[in-house]
Amino acid sequence: MSEELEGQASPNPQPNQPSQQPFNQGNPYQPQGQGAGFGFGGMQQALPNATAVLVLGILSIITCCCFYGLISLVLGIIALVLSKKDIALYLSNVGMYTEGSYKNLKAGRVCAIIGLVFSAIIIIACIIFIATFGFDMLRDQEAMKEWIMQMQNQ
């Protein structure tokens, strides 16, 4: 009988004998698996692209008038794609990431949307201007000045 129990842990371990219980089995509140709980050393970490999304969102607002709004359009789209990935990452494990980085991510997303709207307005205005006056008016500054002077005199 002692041979049968030799490979197994005894149901009542003696105080001097170590327990044969596997690690983390006794603590139901211990995070299990990778990605569970907190980041490095029990501390929360920032979302990887939160700062980049915020910077790109702000730049998309600032550059909405550069090159007919195309730079702003590109920066806004990049910011929205990065923010979508980070939002999914944050929602998959809320406790691992800081709330401040999530707020920065949301602010960058809002700035990117505002930049996209401004750039869309500028692009639509350029299309209307080109459809109305043509490319020649854009190239010839003298013709543009004459047209402006005619509009002011009327």
TrEMBL record:
The lineage of its organism: Bacteria, Pseudomonadati, Bacteroidota, Sphingobacteriia, Sphingobacteriales. Residues 7-26 have a biased composition (Low complexity). The keyword Transmembrane applies. The chain crosses the membrane at residues 52-82, 110-135. Keywords: Membrane, Transmembrane, Transmembrane helix. Signal peptide: none annotated. InterPro entries: MpPF26. NCBIfam families: CCC_membrane (NF040945). Residues 1-26 are annotated as: Disordered. This is Interferon-induced transmembrane protein. It comes from Pedobacter xixiisoli.
